[in-house]
């Protein structure tokens, strides 16, 4: 892959004057296997009842790190963290268990949990494209690591996906900045910095060319979400890692080998934590690799069937304190 190394410390990605320095070096991890497409919209509750973890021998070692997705997992549908969950997270950290928020959200959307970050203060954002220090509080995050999608790969992926699925619309997510095509739908309360065709945005002399691209968003107004995901993976091939976390036909393209799981593995390796000492929570296809990698993992009661199949256990829905319930049981030695 051309361009800069896909795994950068903040000091590599930014000039010293930016203040974004101090990242520790990381070892490389190999590319995770492809995840399968989801077969049900996230709003449809999973029929299975909560269960203890099973299979893969998970749970043989005491947990040292909890990795949890946010939307549909830790957060309730109203985007809040319940008092019970706040208490459970605090109890875990008091017991010496590190907590990592691992999300597809960009760093600028992390204010919703910034007040609940303690200890190391780190979160994994953009499906593994960035590790962010949230210690500064709302709006004051600092990039610690960046795993960019090289512009050459991003541009090639856009071209291939346009050919395979005419009508696809794109947006470009950067460390600082969000740019989109003029017809890209208003999916969030997001005001784009630039309105240009993706090919112009990703050109060598394009907008904010000096900043890393974290991921490409690809939306199709007509295709079935699962069909779009399958088609995109075939079309894009090894140029990018393709996943989704939305109920709509909205895909997320990251650098090859970049995922929640691979970046979490880097952070754990730095701490001397093995995958067997990790407990992970998630609900969507972009969580599957992380749930498969962790020694113990729980799919939410509202999760997709493929996510349920990937986890070693299942818990209650996000609106019913599913994460908190498992943490309480872990601390009490019940699981």
UniProtKB/TrEMBL annotation:
Presence of the UniProt keyword Hydrolase in the record: yes
Pfam families associated with the record: Hydrolase_3
Segments of this protein annotated with the region Disordered: 1-63
GO MF entry, a single one: phosphatase activity
GO cellular component term, pick one: cytosol
Domain of life: Bacteria
Keywords per UniProt: Hydrolase
SUPFAM superfamilies: HAD-like
Name assigned to this protein: HAD family hydrolase
Organism this protein belongs to: Streptomyces seoulensis
Lineage of origin: Bacteria, Bacillati, Actinomycetota, Actinomycetes, Kitasatosporales
